[in-house]
Write a structure and sequence with these properties.
InterPro entries: RTRAF. It contains ten helices and two strands; from the N terminus they run H-H-H-H-H-H-H-H-H-H-E-E. It has helices at 13-28, 37-40, 47-57, 67-85, 87-90, 96-108, 119-132, 140-146, 150-157, 179-215, and strands at 219-220, 225-226.
Length: 228
């Protein structure tokens, strides 16, 4: 509630003395009203002695010359007393700094406040679809869902152990102009190659199975032919 918190200068003698009187009168209230006369007489030559006595009375650990430290300590005492008198009022309060930190964190994470109707977002989805060769659709959200089907999610959720891959050793073959997108494209290409290898393995297994059938025919002499 101080009238000039932003412009307060503890090195200004008059301002400093007025502040101490205000703090005692409004917040700390260690002295009775009738005992505050010497502290309130800020133009007296004896004010430093009155202030030094006040510091001892409130058990301030700093010396009278340590003004910044004294101000910080007295403010801490005032806050503690203010809270003690109004605990129910302040117990559920959130510090402004914490609110700002929360807002900063939210702003730092663009996906939290993502606007799917933003033209830039739509353009980005279309560009990504072209890059990943996803079939175009009038509804750009449908294109996103094509990569988020239940089968795709289930497959992606399956943990696989493998060796770490150094992306810098794999040439992409084109440049998107964005290092992050280039790296994402490299990862997608490697995953695609892995899928192709799995498909080739299944094809080879099918060929081996067919060859096993052909190489081991059963002869039916009654029909006069070879085969199943």
């Amino acid at each position: 509630d101080y009238h000039n918190p932003a412009g307060f200068n503890c090195r200004d003698e008059t301002e400093f003395r007025n502040f101490i009187v205000w703090l005692e009168d409004q917040k700390i209230r260690h002295y009775k009203i009738e005992d505050r006369g010497n502290l309130r007489n800020i133009h007296s030559e004896d004010w430093p002695k009155s202030f030094e006595k006040y510091m001892k009375d409130v058990n301030c650990p700093f010396k009278i010359q340590e003004r910044q430290e004294t101000v910080d300590w007295l403010l801490g005492l005032a806050v503690r007393l203010e809270y003690g008198d109004n605990a129910d009022k302040y117990k559920d309060s959130t510090p402004d700094g914490a609110k700002n930190a929360d807002n900063t964190a939210k702003n730092a994470e663009p996906l939290i406040n993502l606007d799917v109707n933003n033209p830039d977002f739509k353009a980005g989805v279309m560009a990504l679809a072209n890059l990943l060769q996803i079939q175009r659709h009038d509804d750009y959200l449908v294109m996103l869902k094509e990569r988020l089907t239940q089968d795709a999610i289930a497959k992606a959720s399956q943990s696989k152990e493998g060796l770490p891959v150094a992306l810098e050793k794999h040439i992409l073959g084109f440049d998107t102009g964005d290092a992050v997108i280039n790296e994402a494209a490299q990862i997608l290409r490697l995953l695609h190659i892995e899928e192709l290898r799995e498909l080739q393995t299944k094809i080879n297994e099918a060929i081996v199975a067919v060859q096993a059938i052909i190489a081991d025919p059963k002869t039916d002499h009654r029909l006069g032919k070879v085969g199943r």
